[in-house]
Amino acid sequence: MVLLSNEEFLTQLTLLSQSARSESSFTITIKRYDGHDRPKPREGNPPLPKPAEYQCLIRARSRSKKLATVVRHDEVGKFMESYSKVLKSSMDGLKKIKKVKNKAKAVQG
Questions:
Q1: Which of 32, 47, 87, 101 to pair with 11, CA 20 to 30 A apart?
Q2: ∠ CA(101), CA(105), CA(109), 5° rounding?
Q3: From its phi and psi, is residue 42 left (phi > 0), alpha (psi between -120 and 50) or beta?
Q4: Which H or E run includes 85?
Q5: 43-50 contacts: CB < 8 A, separation 24 or more?
Q6: What is the pTM of this model?
Q7: Are 2 and 11 in contact (CB under 8 A)?
Q8: Which DSSP string corresponds to 20-72?
Q9: Cα distance between residue 27 and residue 41, in whole Å
Q10: For 67-88, how does the pLDDT look when each residue is reduced to its tens digit (9 = 90+)?
Q11: d(CA 69, CA 59)
Q12: Cα dist. 3→7, 50, 66, 69 in Å?
């Protein structure tokens, strides 16, 4: 997995979404990140220190490419604005799914 800066992540995400239109799909995950990249120590060993502030780990994955970035607490608002612009520009080809009502629900209501 490649850990990128925030701006580089957004540009690579744009390229990833454009390539995924013709080939496949991609997934994005967001989770809280405390800065530790190792598992919790076993019993008897000193615990890992608590971070002063948590960060946000964002990952994007397609079939052949993995991207990741860490966003600091004070930069989340600015990053999410840019992130939403990238997602809105890449979601213009979605198909609308037709919903089928159940006959039982139609009779009751």
A1: 32
A2: 115
A3: beta
A4: helix 76-90
A5: none
A6: 0.73
A7: no
A8: HHHS---EEEEEEE-S--SPPPPTTSPPPPPPSS-EEEEEEE-SS-EEEEEE-
A9: 31
A10: 999 999 999 999 999 999 998 8
A11: 7
A12: 12, 23, 9, 5
